[in-house]
Structures are given as C-alpha cells and as structure tokens.
Amino acid sequence: MVQCTPTTYGGYPPERTTYGPGNLRTFNALVETSNDKTPQDADLGTDEDLLTPYGAGNGHISRNVRLSLALIDLVEPYVQILDAAGRELRDDVVPLSPRWYRSSMKTKVLTIPEGTGNTTIGWTVGGSVSVDSTALMVGRWDDLDGTVFDGMTQPTKQQLDDYFASLPQGGDNPMVWFSEAQGPGPAKWNERLGFYDPASLAAAEPGSSASINDDILPEAVYRSSIDLSQYVEGDQIAVYAVARVDQSWADQENNVLGSLRPQTNVVNARTDPQWRQDYLASDGTKKVVQGRLDWFSIPLTIEVGPPRAPMLETSVRSPIDDWAPDFQPLSTFTIIKALLVVGAGFALAAVMCVLARQASDGTDCFAVIRQRRRIRQAALPARAYSINNSPLRRRRYNSAGSSFDDDDLDYAIS
C-alpha cells in the first residue's frame, strides 16, 4: 500500500497512513437522507416512537437513527436464548459485564426436577439478515471440552471438527447431540418480519403478544423441544443455540472483475472460516477478525434437582453474585418448632382464662382483670389517713378559753 506523503498544510507523519492487510476493508453505506437537501423542520422527526418506522415521530433524523443502530447491530452475528420451559430467562446481553470461564453456569441457570421430559427452548438470532440454519446443542458440562466450550468465546471450525471427531460414535444416548435444524428463516433485520403498529398495540389486550412495548424491534423466535429424561439429579447440562447466517453474502455477480471474492471483514467474518485478519487499531491495540460459519449463544445451564424439586430460574446478573431465592422454603424442623410454639401459646392462654374467671358465672376473664385494676387504682393510699399529713387542722382550747401555745394537735376529719 502506497503511503501518503503530503506537502500541503505542513504534512503529517507517514506512519499515519501505514496499512496492513486487515485495514481498508470497511463496508461502506451511502445514505441519501432526502431528495430535498434542506428539508423542512417538520420533516426531521422526533424521538416519539423512535424505533417504529411509521410511528408518530417518524422523520429523516429518526429514520437514520434506526438505520445507524441496524448497521451497528449487523457488524457481528449473535444468538440469544430467550426462554425455557415457558419461563422467560434473564437477559444475558449486559454491556461491560464480566464474562469468565463458564460464568454462564451462574448467570443463565434453570433448575428442573429429575424426570423432566420434553422441554421447549426459545432463542433468537441477531446481527444478521437471514438464518440459513439453526439448532440447539445439548450435552453435560462434564462431557464438553473446556478449551472449546468455555462459555465466553466462539469456538473455531478446527476446534469443533476435532472435538466431534473425538466423541464416541453411535449409541442411543450420545454425549452431545443436536435438535432438529431449522431454516432458512429470518433474522432480526429481515424485512419479512415487519414492524409493530403502534395503533394496534394501543388497542391490544394487556399481556397479549401484541401488547409488547413498541420501542422493541420484532424478533424471529425459533423454538425446539429437547428430551431431558435421560439426565439424573446432580447433572449440569449445557444448552447452546447455534446458527449459520447470511451465507448468500459470499455470492458474487458474474460481472465482478476477475471473479474477485468479497473483501470486507463484515462479509468474510460470517462466511469464511479461513478468513483471519490481524491489525493494529488507531489506539495501538491489536485487533483480530476471525471468520466462522457457526455462531454459538451464551449457553443455558440446566441443573437437575431432586424428582420433586420446583422448576425455577436461579440466574444472577453478574458472575460475582450468588443466587438467593426470593422465598426460602421452610424446613420440616422449622415448621414443627413453629407449631409447638403456637400450641404452647394457646395452652398458656387457656390456663390464664380458667384461673382468672369468677366462680362459674362465665364472666370474661379480661373484664374481671380490668375491673380489679380500676378498684386498686381508686383505693386511697395509706398515707391519706395520716394525721400529720392532713391538710385540715384544728386547735384545742383549755377551760380558760386560751389555746395551748406549745402543743398543737392536728387531726384529720374523716
């Protein structure tokens, strides 16, 4: 690649135009916003119904916001398990959240009782337009090679080929197996999906499938039923959703000069497992684009509990957290202890009632207690009968009519 050595405006260092084989492979999209280069303010749109193409606030700006978000999403395909056994699972697409070796064994977990048979799993495919094929891969975590299925990176084609070649062939209960493949079908950005109509959403019954938030784009949800009856208590089962997408992007028209194959990273990353480009980003970090055909979801872990255990999701938002149930089931010992305490309380109350009743007239024991309390409170204290403390005073006189000067006697008049 020829380096630029401009002389105008003072030039700039040649290393700024040093490109490797992985550079200059951008997929360019030219957007004509409007036939009118200076559209009216009323045509620009608002943020109302922003993600709905024909929403109340639709316009040039809101339309191109959606286009920009779609292009960002299309950079890399992804698969996401949405629900299992009729239970919507915790969202595992969490920006900037830590993802460690098999951390999904904590962050995406469903506990089922032993003996559970067919279980329906639902998943969706994003970052793409068309799904060529998609299926579920099922196996015990202990049977999966940890260097290939670590739950945080995408396995390469060579790793997958080597691993499946090493598995025992045949048998009624294979260690790792796939559900029946589905496809071709639409992915999130396929025009076949259409969009929700805000008017119909407003009229929909609450809780119905049509009453979904109109700020959420529709998804193509695939479903498959897997038989889990072969697994026993203590087994930890990994369920991956796998998809192959947009293979038609590798097809070229006959008029391409020299029959040149596609050269952009965005196309080869999903159609050519031999494609690999290493390059340095502008911030100096090394970037790698590795092509692949199959895309694996963050796996769902299904833990098999006792035969009568409840079916519930035990996922946590972050692998650094520990799951705790919203309601802790009471043990048999705790229930018996509580019943004994309550029974003792009733017995004590009965004894008090018997002892506090008057004779056999059935007078309420609590009324008797209150009456006795009022009588005690109304009684005069002993000091009220003291002569020296009486506020009333009388003076004694002698026969001569004069009072005693030295001996005054106070007494109370009752």
Give an overview of the whole structure.
With 414 residues, the protein is α+β, with helices and mostly antiparallel strands. Among the domains are: 75-254 and 261-313, no CATH class; 334-385, no CATH class. It is built from 7 helices and 14 strands. The strands form 3 sheets. Strands 3, 5, 6, 7, 9, 12, 13 and 14 form an 8-stranded mixed sheet that branches. Strands 2-1-4-8 form a 4-stranded antiparallel sheet, with no helix packed on it. Strand 1 (78-84) and strand 2 form a beta hairpin. Helix 6 (332-356) packs across helix 7 (365-378). The longest helix has 25 residues, at 332-356.
Order of helices and strands, N to C? HEEHEEEHEEHEEHEEEEEHH
Rg over C-alpha atoms, rounded to the nearest angstrom? 41 Å
Report the strand count.
Answer: 14
The structural class is: alpha+beta
Report the β-strand fraction as a percent range. 15-25%
Separate helix tally:
7
Largest sheet at a glance?
8 strands, mixed
**What overall geometry do the principal axes of the alpha carbons give?**
extended
Indicate the low-confidence ranges by residue numbers: 201-217, 389-414
What is the arithmetic mean of pLDDT? 77
**Share of helix, binned:** 10-25%
End-to-end Cα distance, whole Å, is: 126 Å
